[in-house]
Amino acid sequence: MKSNKILSKLLLILAVIALSGQLSAQNRISSPYSRFGIGDILSNNGVNNMAMGGISYGVFSPFFVNTSNPATYAAFDSLSFIFDVGAHSKQSKLITQDLTQSANHTSLGNLLFGFPVARWWKSSFGLMPYSMVGYKMLDSRIDDHAGKINYLFEGTGGINQAYIGNSFSITRNLSVGFNFSYLFGTIDKSRADEFPDSIYKLNYKSLRSARIHDVYLNYGILYHKQSKTGMQYNAGLAFSNSSNISVSENRLDYLYFKSSSGVDLPTDTILNLKTVKGNLKLPVNLGVGFTLGKTDKWLIGSDFQWQQWEKYSYFGVADSLKNSMRFSLGGSFTPSVSTISGYWQRITYRGGVRYTKSYLELRNERINEFGISLGIGLPLPRTRSTINLAAEFGSRGTIANNLIKESFIKFTLGLSIFERWFIIKKYD
Questions:
Q1: DSSP class of residue 283?
Q2: How large a percentage of the chain has pLDDT more than 70?
Q3: Residue burial 211-238, b: 16+ Cβ < 10 Å; e: rest
Q4: What pLDDT does 177 receive?
């Protein structure tokens, strides 16, 4: 009973922190590179995976939900219930050849549930972010005739993913699974051309508000083998096909003057279209992963992910995106899970690295990303539940050709609750 009260209080505190961070971050900057495509594509990994460089496709654990490969739900204990929640905070420095600027963003991460349906059938459902848009940029130039021209770009929003997933044990060593997801969200983007040195030229603004809503499927398969000595060998594969996702967009373009208080005073509407319907085409996604470890002791693994972003289109118009790749390597170590061991012996230590070749190529420069991650899992008394902490130190982009280099630290706080809910207690 005491441990359940502790879990309830911790869950409440984490929910308040995550919610307050989500509310306070609505106008914060995520990344200037989220201007392109559908924004920053977010990993759907939990805190445990993030702390290990993002490895996930071959991670087979009964103590947390791994949505990257739905076949891994087969690891859930047939008498248990799992709940994972996490919150993220990202602190960035945006560096150009001329200046450095700080940015930050805090948001709720995953909210995941896992449970058994039968010994051979396990299920999961939850909510997690899919992409994020958050940028505000100013590009000032001097024209011989118009004088100073300010080009302002701003974007907010993103896509969320609600899902229900199932995993089926085909044999003792082989499982398959799928996630049936609903993608939804709003992305608002604006561009303004302003002429502060001229009283004769009207400013111009273009607003686009896209509402995304459609279903999405991804699949997984996993081979798991455990020896008599406790050694585990896992190989996993996850796949999603190219998908056309429904979009409805409001479009507004107008000319305006700027008041002395900075308010737009429209003078002429150039374009005003409501609920223009179309599609965006999401790419093929393929991921494979391998892990080797000893039960309740240590784990090492690697991942490879490939996404065919060259086939991406928005309202039938192709973009100049490139196919992306990610390589991850990571692992974990727990000195002892025995309850008679000292507390520090029962802490799980995690670490990993990742390299991402993103879908962006700007001014002939590929925008790549590198990160080193560290984390720990703090066990709660008399349970297999844990508080999970992770930090990733990384960089993205380059200052070459007047681009932006982003150096960041990403902190993640999570709670994984593992409870046995389906045991009938006997009384004498």
A1: P
A2: 91
A3: bbebebebbbbbbbebeeeeebbbbbbb
A4: 98
pLDDT score at 146: 76
Measure the CA–CA gap between 30 and 86, rounded to whole angstroms: 18
Supply 194's token pair: 């302003």
Instruction: Give the type of residue at 213.
Output: H
Say if residues 106 and 163 touch (Cβ distance below 8 Å): no
pLDDT higher for 272 or 28? 272
Class of the CATH domain delimited by 2-321+394-420: mainly beta
DSSP 163-198: EEEEEEESSSSEEEEEEEEEEEEEEEEEEEEE-TT-
The C-alpha atoms of residue 404 and residue 339 are separated, in whole angstroms, by 50
What's this model's pTM, rounded to 2 decimal places? 0.88
| Domains of the chain by residue range | 2-321+394-420
Where residue 363 falls (left for φ over 0; alpha for ψ -120 to 50; beta otherwise) is: left
Cβ burial of 202 (10 Å; 0-12, 13-18, 19+) is middle
Q: How many helices (H) and strands (E) does the chain have?
A: 2, 19
